[in-house]
Design brief:
Elements: H1 6-12, E1 31-35, E2 41-45, E3 59-63, H2 70-78, H3 84-90, E4 106-110, E5 116-117, E6 120-121
Antiparallel strand pairs: 1-2, 3-4, 5-6
Helix pairs in contact: 2-3
C-alpha cells in the first residue's frame, strides 16, 4: 500500500482507532448502532456490497493448480495470506473455496494496487 499515509498505518496500531485495519475488506464498511430496549448500544458492521468487477486490464489470469488455496494465492500475489478476499471479490463466487476447488480453472487476480476497495484505490 504505497499510497498509505504514515499516520494511517500508525492509526491501525491504536486499538479502537478503526474498527478494522486498512488491509481488511471491511475497512470501508459502514458501522451501524443497534439500541437495545435497555438502552445498551451494540455496534455492528453493515452489509458489505461487492465492488464492481475489475476491468480486464486490472487483473491477471491465474490457472489453479491442485492443492492451491485462496490464502496461498493471497500470499503469492499480495504478500499477505489475509488478502485472499481481493481475489474472491474479482471472481463472482459465493464461497471462496470455489476459487481453487477445481484444478485447471482460470481465475482473475487483481493487479496489486489496482483493484478498487469500496470508493478508493489501494
Amino acid at each position: 500500500m504505497a499510497d498509505t499515509e504514515p499516520y494511517e498505518s500508525a492509526m491501525d496500531a491504536i486499538p479502537g482507532a478503526h474498527p478494522y485495519p486498512r488491509s481488511s475488506r471491511y475497512h470501508d464498511a459502514e458501522i451501524g448502532i443497534h439500541r437495545q430496549p435497555d438502552g445498551t448500544e451494540v455496534r455492528y458492521t453493515k452489509r458489505r456490497l461487492l465492488p464492481p468487477l475489475p476491468a480486464e486490464d486490472d487483473t491477471q489470469p491465474h490457472t489453479v493448480s491442485a492443492g492451491e488455496r485462496p490464502d496461498l494465492l493471497g500470499q503469492r500475489y499480495f504478500g499477505d495470506p489475509a488478502q485472499w478476499w481481493q481475489i474472491a471479490d474479482a471472481n463472482p463466487v459465493l464461497d471462496p473455496a470455489e476459487l481453487t476447488a477445481e484444478a485447471g480453472r482460470e481465475i482473475d487476480v487483481p493487479l496489486a494496487g489496482g483493484f478498487p476497495q469500496g470508493n478508493r484505490r489501494v
